[in-house]
Amino acid sequence: MVRIGGIRQAISIRGDDKTNPVLVYLHGGPGYPLFPFEPRQGSMLRLERQFTMVYWEQRGTGKSFSWRIPRKSMSIEQFVEDTRQVIEYVRQVTGADKVFLWGHSWGSNIGALFAARYPELLYAYISTGQSVSPFENEQLAYEFVLEQAQNENNRKALRQLAKIDTLEANYSLNHALTVRRWVYRYGGILKEGSDRPYVDISEIGQILSAPEYSISDRINLILFPYFSAEELWEDLKAFDLREAAPGIEVPVYFLVGKYDKIVSAQLALVYFNMLEAPAGKHLILFEQSAHRPFDEEREKFLKVLKERIFPEVFGEVPHIPE
Question: What is the pLDDT of residue 204?
Answer without folding.
Answer: 64
